[in-house]
Write a structure and sequence with these properties.
Layout lengths: L1 E4 L6 E6 L2 E5 L5 H10 L9 E3 L5 H4 L2 H8 L3 E3 L1 H11 L7 H29 L5 H6 L8 H9 L13 E3 L6 E3 L2 E7 L8 E7 L4 E6 L7 H6 L5 E5 L4 H6 L4 H8 L7 H10 L7 E5 L8 H12 L9 E4 L12
Parallel strand pairs: 3-4, 4-5, 5-6, 10-11, 11-12, 12-13
Antiparallel strand pairs: 1-2, 2-3, 7-8, 8-9, 9-10
The structure holds zinc ion (2 copies).
One zinc ion (ZN) binds next to loops.
Amino acid sequence: MTVLASGSKGNATVIAAGSTTILVDAGMSCKELLRRMAQVGEDPGALNAILITHEHLDHVAGLSVLARRLKIPVFFTEQTHRAWVRMMTPRTTMSYTKWLELMQREKEVRAEKTAAACASQEEVGDSSDQGMEEVSVDPLSDSVASVETDASVPKVKADPAFLPAVEYFRAGHGFSIGEIDVNPFTIPHDAADPCGFVFHARPESIRMAIATDLGYVPPNVKMALKHVDVLLLESNHDLEMLKDGPYPWSVKQRVLSRVGHLSNAAAAEFLLHDYDGGAHTIVLGHLSESNNLPELARLAAEQAIGDRMSLLGNRVVLARQDAPLDPICL
Ligand SMILES: [Zn+2]
Ligand SMILES: [Zn+2]
């Protein structure tokens, strides 16, 4: 496992076993991902597939460019793929509030036009209802503005959501990519269909897991994270720092919610009560740059692991946003 980047500005991890290499998430520019792979001696040409946990930008920012450049398939759940396509398609990237504003503006324009038409019709003494038809345009149908926009762009335009190949998986249903068995599991997070993964290298009988971007650790995640040799676990924020920190209240609420991010305390709680203690290395990831300190995350985890830490097992490593980690090889 090589963590290329971890945090709210971008996530990407290389998982390799035998002749199979998978990139989990592509949350930085293609250029930066390639730069980091070169830095740790990973060959991009060796990548067999890209696997996506969820559609948030810090997990997909470089996805389309990288997949197209390397001509490799991308594995999503169907819902995550759909959400990503919606995000990538300019006409639908509009927020609901923006859409409402646009509709309101168009309504006003139509009302003005109608008023002008009525006025001119009155001048010529025509009382037909032609003008009224324009007002009754269904607001849910294609708006006038977007139809005009579409007509003004070239007919054949590049599809921003084009990928060389798309494969669907479902949480709870294992599948294989080359020599690696992949077991996706559902995580509680505010995305369309977010997943964590357990990777099993069959010949070596080694299991590695990724569980970041989760509001809490539900029973299915506790089950999935049993008997893993390397665990990348979220340790997003220190509760006190988040409460006193710079985020607006609404964002604090989101992070703290059951579909937000895992705190140092919640990660420690998992390590203390639910973790089976068998990992070689625990990587703490997705650390917030505003609401956490590496020392706080490490301290919480190490206290929770307590005397189970040894030279051979339960080494705690902190993933970084600004630089890749050295490969963790078993
Ligand atoms: Zn994230
Ligand atoms: Zn996320």
